[in-house]
C-alpha cells in the first residue's frame, strides 16, 4: 500500500491519510485500519433514482466520490475484497446526508481515511503503572498507537516473502498461500480414497492418482501456472484418464487458468511451495509432480520443482501448518518471516504455560489483571494480542485493548506483539481469548468467585 | 417425493420375491387361499397386500378384496394399486406408509411358517426391522399363543409372523425385505464365538509379521502365496518382510516396510471366529490405528523383546497405543512378547518385560486378570499357533498365542439398540454392487433390504447386500464387521469415511459443539485439536476448560482451570469446524501435533441440525 499523503496530529490523534492499495494483501491492512466511526472517502458507484416532473422515475448509475461515516466493515479474504458500510457524511448532488452506502474499496484507486474527528470518540487516557509516580497520557481512538503501527506496517514497501503450502493427507489437501500477514486457504480438495482392502489395490492406486492429479491441477490454477497439457500426459495414460474421470464426478472442476500461460512462464520469481503431510503422502505427491513435470516437459512446473520443500505434519488439517512452520528444517528457511516469528512466539508461550508456574497467562481478564500488577513489564514481559481485538465494532472494546497495549509499551516497558488473526498462530491465540502474556513474575490467580463478583460490581 | 420413490422400489422387489420363491412351490400346498392362484401368485398377492396396506396407511380402510382386486388388475404393481385404491377411497391422502396395518395374520402366519420350514435356505431377501420393533413384535407373537408354530418352524417364519404385527409400529416401512427377526436368528444360528481384535504396538515390533505367521500356521494363507511373497521380498532385499506382506498389501507399505493402514483378515479356530485388525505402529498413522481399535473387542499388544527395542517402544507407541485402546473401551489385552528368538528365549528378559508392562498397564487402567503375557516369535512361529520346540524355553508352560486369543470371552452385543455403523471404508464392491461400505456394527442389527439413514448427509439408503467375513449373509448383528452393499444413494456425494449409518427412526445427530469428559495424557489448553472418532478425523478446537474433576468421584475440583495437567480428568468444551455425527457416550480422542493429548467420553452434544428422518420431501 502506498501512502500518498498524510496529515496526522499524533498528539490529538486527529488526521487523515490518503492510501493507495496495490495488491490484495493491502485490503487486509485496510480492514485492520478502518474502524467504525472513521470517515472514509473513496470513489463509489451509486444508483440514483430521479423523478421527473410528470412523476416517472429513471434510475442511473453514477460515479461519484462519497465520504462515509463507517458503521461496519466486511472483509472477504478469498477474494481480497473489503466492503465498507456506513452513512454518507458529506452531501453531494446525488446523495443525501445520512444515506446508507457500502463502498467496495478497489485496487489502484486512492481512498482517504480520516480518524479522530470530533465524533470519533478520541480521548486521552492517563495511565498509571505499578509505579504510581510516573504518569503517561496516551491517545486512545483516532490515530492511536495501534492504528499508527498498522499504517506503518501497511505502507512498508519491502518485498515480503510469500509461500504456497499444501497440507495434505490421503484424500484431503488444503492448498493455501501464506503471505506476510495472512494465511489464505485457497482451496480444500477432498477425493474419497478407498482404504486398504484385499483385492482393492488397483482401486486405491487409481483413486490416489486421481487425488494427486486434482491437487496438482487445482494448485497450478491457484498459482496461475498453466495446467499440464493433456497431450503430454498421453504417455502415461493413468494420469490422463484419472483427470477425465475426475471432471465428471470430482469435487473440484477444472477451470481454464485465469492468466494466459505465456504471462506466467516469463515470470522468473516462482514462489516456494511447501508440501506437508503425515506419512508419505507429501513425498509421494512430490514424486508425482516430478513425474508429471518430466512427462509434460512443462517449464513452469520444472521451475517450481526446484522450489519445493517437503515437510512432515501430523495431520492434513490447516492447523498443522503452525507445527510445520515451527519445525527446524522449515523454520531455518523461513526464518525472517513474520509468520515464522509469530509461530515461534506462540510456541514459546505454550511452553511457558505448560510449566504452569504462573508466569504465563491468557484470557482478557487474567491478562489485564497481570498487567495491572506490573507483571508484564521490563525484563521479559511479552504481551501477545490478536489484531482481531482492535477490529472490534465496539469503540469501548477497542479502546480497552489499545489502552492495555499502550500501558505495557509505555509504562511497563514490556514487549507487545500484535499477531495477525489471519495466520494459524493468530488462530491459536484466538482460541485463548485473543490475548495472552508471558510475565516476569507469577501473578496469583484471583479466586474465581471473587473475580466474578468484581466483574458484577464493575458492570453494575 | 419419498413416498413415490419407495413405492417404485416396492415394485422392483416384487420381482425379487418372484425369483426367490420359485423353487418353493410346495410351501403353500395346503394354504387356504384363492385356489385359482398359483403359489407364486399367492405369495405375490400376499406380499402385495401387505405392501399396499402399508402404503395406504391407517386412514384408508380398504378391504382385503379391494386390495387384491387392484393388485390383480395391475399385475401386482403396488404403486399402481395404491394409486388406484387411493383414488377410489381417499384422494387427499398424501403421506403413505405411516401406520401400516396387518392383514389377516392367521393364514399368513401359517403360510409363513411353512415357507420358512422349507426355505430357511432361501437366501438374500431384503428386510429390515429395527430391533425394538421386532422385539415388540416377538412378544406379541408369543402372547397370541403361536408357540408351537414358532418353536418348530425356523426363525424365518417367526420373523414373518411377527413383522406383520410389528409393521403396525413402523413409521418408515421396510420394503422387499425378508423381514427376519435378526435377534432370534442370531440366537439360534449357533454361531461360534466371534471376536475382532486389533493388533497394536510400536513401529517395527513385528505386528504384521506375527499376524502373517499366525495366518500361515492356521492355513488361512497357503504355502504357495507365502513362497511367492518370499520371492518378491527377496528380490527387493527385504526377505524378513515376507510374512508381513500377507497383511501389508499396498505397494507403499511393501516398499517402505511399514504398515500404513489397518489390514483386516479372518481366521477361525475350533472355538472362535476371529477378525484381525492389524494396526499401523508408526506415529503418523495413529489415526488409522484408532479407526481399527474402535472396531475391536480386545487388543493384542505386540512388544519387541530385543534389547532397547522394548524400551524405546515404551516411550513411543507401545505406551500411546495401550492408553488409546484402553480409553477407546478395550478392556482385555493379550501382550505378545515378540522376537523371543532374537532374545534367545531368555526367561529373564520375558520376566523383566512382563514386570515393567504389568506396572504400566495397571496404571493405565487394565485389570491384571484381563492381561495375558505370551512369549512368541513371529518370524519362526514359535508359540504362535504351535508351542515352543522342546528345549528352547523349558521355563514356559503357558498357552500359545492362539489359545490365549481363544480365551477371549464373547463380548456383549448391543443387539436391541438402534443400528449404528461407523463407515470405515467406502469402495466399489464390483459391478453388482457399485457402492459398498464396511464397518463394525456398534449396535443394533441389520438385514438385507433394510433402509438406513446416513448421517450427517441425512440421506436414506437401502441395503442391497451384506457380507460378513467375506461371505454373503442375510443379516448382521452388533459386534460384527460387515460389508454393506448400498443402493439408492449417491455415495460420492453423500458418504464419507467416518459417517454413520443408523436406523431411520433413531438417527445420529450431527454435532459441531460438545462437552466431553477427558483423561489427559498431555497438557490440555484451549487449543486447536484433531478430534478422532473411528475413521473421523475432524479439525476443531478446545473452546473452554470447564473444570478439572476428581479422578474417582468425578466431583469438580477446580472450575475454569488455566491448564489441564497430564493425567488429570477434566471436562472441556469442544467446537468442531465441520459437524460430525456424534452421540452422548461416544468415545473420542484428541490429538495435537502428532501426539495424543487426551481421550474422552462425549457427555453433552449440541446438535446443529437434525435432518428429517423421512428423507427429502
Keyword list:
A: alpha+beta; SH3 type barrels; Nucleotidyltransferase, domain 5; 60s Ribosomal Protein L30, Chain: A; 3 domains; seven-stranded antiparallel sheet; five-stranded mixed sheet; 18 strands; B: 617 residues; Rossmann fold; Elongation Factor Tu (Ef-tu), domain 3; 4 domains; six-stranded antiparallel β-barrel; 32% helix; translation elongation factor activity (chain B); HBS1-like_N (chain B); protein biosynthesis (chain B); Elongation factor 1 alpha-like protein (chain B); Transl_B-barrel_sf (chain B)
Can you describe this structure?
- The complex is a heterodimer of chains A (460) and B (617).
- Helix content of chain A is 35%, strand content 28%.
- By secondary structure, chain A is of the alpha+beta class.
- Chain A has 3 domains: 2-154, SH3 type barrels (Roll), CATH 2.30.30.870; 165-334, Nucleotidyltransferase, domain 5 (2-Layer Sandwich); 342-459, 60s Ribosomal Protein L30, Chain: A (2-Layer Sandwich), CATH 3.30.1330.
- In chain A, strands 1-2-7-3-4-5-6 form a 7-stranded antiparallel β-sheet, covered by helices on one side.
- Chain B is globular and about 85 Å long.
- The model of chain B is unreliable at 5-35, 91-107, 119-130, 141-175 and 609-617 (pLDDT under 50).
- Chains A and B meet through helix 3, helix 8, helix 10 and helix 13 of A and helix 12, strand 2, strand 8 and strand 19 of B.
- Chain A: It comes from Lineolata rhizophorae.
Amino acid at each position: 500500500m502506498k501512502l500518498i499523503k498524510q496529515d496526522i496530529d499524533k498528539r490529538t490523534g486527529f488526521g487523515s491519510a490518503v492510501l493507495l492499495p496495490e495488491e490484495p494483501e493491502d485490503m487486509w491492512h485496510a480492514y485492520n485500519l478502518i474502524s467504525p466511526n472513521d470517515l472514509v472517502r473513496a470513489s463509489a458507484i451509486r444508483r440514483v433514482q430521479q423523478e421527473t416532473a410528470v412523476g416517472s422515475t429513471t434510475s442511473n448509475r453514477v460515479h461519484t466520490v462519497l465520504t462515509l461515516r463507517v458503521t461496519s466493515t466486511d472483509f472477504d479474504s478469498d477474494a481480497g475484497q473489503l466492503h465498507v458500510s456506513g452513512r454518507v457524511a458529506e452531501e453531494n448532488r446525488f446523495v443525501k446526508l445520512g444515506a446508507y452506502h457500502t463502498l467496495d474499496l478497489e485496487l489502484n484507486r486512492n481512498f482517504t481515511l480520516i480518524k479522530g474527528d470530533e465524533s470519533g470518540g478520541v480521548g486521552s487516557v492517563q495511565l498509571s503503572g505499578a509505579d504510581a509516580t510516573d504518569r503517561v497520557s496516551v491517545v486512545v481512538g483516532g490515530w492511536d498507537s495501534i492504528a499508527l503501527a498498522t499504517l506503518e506496517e501497511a505502507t512498508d514497501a519491502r518485498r515480503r516473502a510469500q509461500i504456497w503450502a499444501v497440507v495434505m493427507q490421503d484424500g484431503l489437501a488444503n492448498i493455501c498461500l501464506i503471505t506476510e500477514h495472512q494465511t489464505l486457504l485457497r482451496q480444500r480438495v477432498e477425493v474419497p480414497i478407498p482404504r486398504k482392502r484385499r483385492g482393492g489395490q488397483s482401486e486405491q492406486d487409481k483413486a490416489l492418482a486421481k487425488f494427486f492429479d486434482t491437487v496438482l491441477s487445482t494448485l497450478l490454477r491457484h498459482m496461475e501456472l498453466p495446467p499440464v497439457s493433456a497431450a503430454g500426459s498421453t504417455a502415461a495414460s493413468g494420469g490422463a484418464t484419472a483427470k477425465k474421470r475426475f471432471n465428471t464426478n470430482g469435487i473440484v472442476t477444472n477451470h481454464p487458468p485465469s492468466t494466459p500461460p505465456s504471462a506466467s512462464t516469463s515470470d522468473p520469481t516462482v514462489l516456494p511451495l511447501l508440501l506437508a503431510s503425515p506419512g508419505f503422502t507429501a513425498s509421494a505427491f512430490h514424486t508425482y509432480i516430478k513425474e508429471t513435470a518430466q512427462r509434460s516437459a512443462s517449464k513452469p512446473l520444472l521451475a517450481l520443482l526446484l522450489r519445493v520443500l517437503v515437510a512432515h505434519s501430523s495431520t492434513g488439517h490447516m492447523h498443522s501448518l503452525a507445527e510445520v512452520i515451527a519445525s527446524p528444517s522449515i523454520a531455518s528457511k523461513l526464518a525472517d518471516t513474520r509468520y515464522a516469528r509469530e509461530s515461534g512466539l506462540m510456541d514459546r508461550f505454550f511452553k511457558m504455560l505448560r510449566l504452569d508456574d504462573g508466569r504465563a497467562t491468557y484470557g482478557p481478564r487474567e491478562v489485564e489483571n497481570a498487567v495491572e500488577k506490573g507483571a508484564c513489564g521490563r525484563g521479559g514481559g511479552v504481551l501477545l494480542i490478536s489484531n482481531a481485538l482492535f477490529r472490534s465494532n465496539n469503540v469501548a472494546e477497542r479502546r480497552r485493548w489499545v489502552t492495555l497495549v499502550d500501558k505495557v509499551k509505555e509504562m511497563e516497558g514490556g514487549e507487545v506483539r500484535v499477531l495477525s488473526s489471519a495466520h494459524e498462530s493468530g488462530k491459536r491465540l484466538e482460541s485463548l481469548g485473543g490475548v495472552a502474556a508471558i510475565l516476569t513474575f507469577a501473578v496469583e490467580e484471583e479466586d474465581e468467585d471473587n473475580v466474578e463478583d468484581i466483574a458484577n460490581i464493575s458492570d453494575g | 417425493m419419498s413416498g413415490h420413490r419407495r413405492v417404485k422400489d416396492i415394485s422392483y422387489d416384487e420381482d425379487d420375491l418372484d425369483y426367490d420363491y420359485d423353487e418353493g412351490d410346495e410351501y403353500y400346498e395346503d394354504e387356504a387361499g384363492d385356489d385359482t392362484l398359483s403359489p407364486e401368485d399367492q405369495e405375490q398377492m400376499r406380499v402385495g397386500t401387505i405392501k399396499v396396506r402399508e402404503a395406504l396407511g391407517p386412514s384408508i380402510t380398504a378391504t382385503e378384496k379391494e386390495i387384491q382386486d387392484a393388485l390383480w388388475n395391475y399385475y401386482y404393481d403396488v404403486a399402481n394399486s395404491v394409486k388406484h385404491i387411493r383414488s377410489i377411497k381417499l384422494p387427499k391422502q398424501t403421506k403413505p406408509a405411516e401406520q401400516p396395518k396387518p392383514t389377516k395374520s392367521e393364514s399368513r402366519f401359517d403360510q409363513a411358517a411353512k415357507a420358512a420350514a422349507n426355505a430357511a435356505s432361501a437366501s438374500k431377501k431384503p428386510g429390515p426391522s429395527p430391533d425394538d420393533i421386532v422385539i415388540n413384535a416377538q412378544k406379541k407373537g408369543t402372547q397370541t399363543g403361536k408357540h408351537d408354530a414358532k418353536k418348530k418352524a425356523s426363525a424365518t417364519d417367526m420373523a414373518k409372523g411377527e413383522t406383520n404385527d410389528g409393521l403396525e409400529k413402523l413409521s418408515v416401512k421396510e420394503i422387499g425385505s425378508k423381514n427376519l427377526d435378526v435377534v432370534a436368528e442370531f440366537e439360534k444360528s449357533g454361531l461360534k464365538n466371534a471376536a475382532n481384535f486389533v493388533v497394536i504396538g510400536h513401529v517395527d515390533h513385528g505386528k504384521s509379521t506375527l499376524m502373517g505367521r499366525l495366518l500361515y500356521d492356521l492355513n488361512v494363507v497357503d504355502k504357495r502365496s507365502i513362497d511367492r511373497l518370499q520371492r518378491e521380498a527377496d528380490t527387493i532385499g527385504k526377505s524378513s518382510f515376507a510374512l508381513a506382506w500377507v497383511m501389508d498389501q499396498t505397494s507403499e507399505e511393501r516398499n517402505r516396510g511399514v504398515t500404513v493402514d489397518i489390514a483386516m483378515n479372518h481366521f477361525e479356530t475350533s472355538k472362535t471366529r476371529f477378525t484381525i485388525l492389524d494396526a499401523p505402529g508408526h506415529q503418523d498413522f495413529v489415526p488409522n490405528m484408532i479407526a481399527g481399535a474402535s472396531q475391536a473387542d480386545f487388543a493384542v499388544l505386540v512388544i519387541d523383546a530385543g534389547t532397547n527395542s522394548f524400551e524405546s517402544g515404551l516411550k513411543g507407541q507401545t505406551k500411546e497405543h495401550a492408553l488409546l485402546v484402553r480409553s477407546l473401551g478395550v478392556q482385555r489385552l493379550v501382550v505378545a512378547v515378540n522376537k523371543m528368538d532374537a532374545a534367545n528365549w531368555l526367561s529373564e528378559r520375558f520376566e523383566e518385560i512382563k514386570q515393567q508392562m504389568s506396572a504400566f498397564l495397571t496404571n493405565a487402567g487394565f485389570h491384571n486378570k484381563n492381561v495375558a503375557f505370551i512369549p512368541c516369535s513371529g518370524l519362526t512361529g514359535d508359540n504362535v499357533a504351535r508351542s515352543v520346540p522342546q528345549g528352547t524355553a523349558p521355563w514356559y508352560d503357558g498357552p500359545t498365542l492362539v489359545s490365549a486369543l481363544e480365551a477371549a470371552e464373547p463380548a456383549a452385543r448391543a443387539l436391541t439398540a438402534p443400528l449404528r455403523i461407523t463407515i470405515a471404508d467406502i469402495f466399489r464392491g464390483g459391478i453388482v454392487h457399485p457402492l459398498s461400505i464396511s464397518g463394525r456394527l456398534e449396535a443394533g442389527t441389520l438385514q438385507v433390504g433394510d433402509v438406513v439413514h446416513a448421517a450427517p448427509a441425512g440421506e436414506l439408503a437401502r441395503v442391497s447386500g451384506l457380507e460378513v467375513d467375506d461371505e454373503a449373509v442375510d443379516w448382521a448383528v452388533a459386534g460384527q464387521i460387515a460389508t454393506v452393499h448400498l443402493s439408492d444413494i449417491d455415495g460420492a456425494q453423500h458418504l464419507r469415511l467416518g459417517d454413520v449409518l443408523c436406523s431411520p427412526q433413531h438417527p445420529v445427530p450431527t454435532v459441531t459443539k460438545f462437552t466431553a469428559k477427558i483423561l489427559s495424557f498431555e497438557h490440555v489448553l484451549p487449543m486447536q485439536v484433531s478430534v478422532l472418532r473411528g475413521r473421523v478425523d475432524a479439525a476443531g478446537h478446545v473452546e473452554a476448560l470447564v473444570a478439572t474433576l476428581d479422578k474417582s468421584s468425578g466431583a469438580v475440583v477446580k472450575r475454569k482451570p488455566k491448564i489441564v495437567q497430564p493425567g488429570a480428568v477434566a471436562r472441556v468444551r469442544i467446537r468442531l469446524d465441520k459437524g460430525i455425527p456424534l452421540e452422548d457416550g461416544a468415545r473420542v480422542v484428541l490429538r495435537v501435533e502428532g501426539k495424543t493429548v487426551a481421550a474422552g467420553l462425549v457427555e453433552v452434544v449440541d446438535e446443529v441440525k437434525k435432518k428429517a428422518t423421512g428423507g427429502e420431501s
